[in-house]
Design brief:
By secondary structure, the chain is an all-alpha fold. It contains seven helices and no strands. It has a single domain (22-218), classed as Methane Monooxygenase Hydroxylase, Chain G, domain 1 (Up-down Bundle). It is globular and about 60 Å long. Belongs to the UPF0111 family.
Length: 219
């Protein structure tokens, strides 16, 4: 009886996969991972205004990192079991890994700002706001993968635009720093700016992974 019940569950799961149920589940899991990363970006942004004390943000970021690891692990687990995916599995792994890299760099930014950051973190507010906007656009793109695939490219381009904004802000602020006197806080800010630039680059890689997947799907 147990063998029969197990076989029936597998058949039911396979039928649900073929009807598109697994695709929506995967979309939900990718969104869940992005949501966790967004929480990390919002937390990092809150330190730029002093709304959250840096040591407290560092502790909270550790929790967020664990949530992100759990979200990615669940996505990987499901990908290994389902028959049908909305985009190629390899591209899904690549997308998930890049999103995870965004969180890793946000974690490092928060940790480093607490360890040796300058007294004023206001320079990070705009880049982090751009990161948050980019994550929102990436989630929007993911949501459209199944029901409106033709609109994914527009949302991906919006994500890339946000990433370009991070790079632009990084370069502008770096130019301002180098035009002034070289002080210890200048070096500290430069290191954190480099970390934020890395956040933007990893987010861009996530957008590229999704764009490549949708192009592959259209052929």
């Amino acid at each position: 009886m147990r063998t029969s019940d197990g076989r029936l569950r597998r058949i039911a799961r396979a039928w649900d996969d073929l009807r598109g149920g697994s695709g929506r589940r995967i979309v939900g899991l990718v969104r869940a991972q992005i949501t966790v990363v967004r929480a990390g970006a919002v937390l990092a942004h809150s330190t730029s205004s002093g709304a959250v004390e840096r040591s407290a943000a560092r502790l909270r970021m550790t929790e967020i990192e664990h949530e992100g690891d759990a979200a990615r692990a669940e996505l990987v687990r499901v990908l290994r079991r389902v028959l049908v995916t909305p985009i190629d599995r390899e591209d899904l792994f690549r997308l998930s890994r890049s999103v995870d890299d965004v969180l890793d760099h946000l974690r490092d930014y928060v940790r480093e700002s607490d360890m040796f950051g300058p007294g004023d973190l206001s320079f990070a507010a705009e880049p982090l706001r751009a990161v948050i906007d980019g994550l929102d656009e990436l989630e929007n793109a993911v949501v459209k993968m199944i029901d409106d695939p033709g609109s994914v490219t527009v949302a991906v381009l919006a994500t890339r635009k946000a990433c370009s904004r991070v790079r632009q802000l990084y370069q502008t602020r770096l130019t301002e720093l180098f035009a002034g006197s070289l002080e210890m806080d200048t070096l500290r800010e430069r290191e954190l700016l480099s970390r934020l630039d890395a956040v933007g680059r990893r987010l861009g890689e996530a957008a590229d992974a999704l764009a490549d997947a949708m192009l592959k799907r259209s052929h």
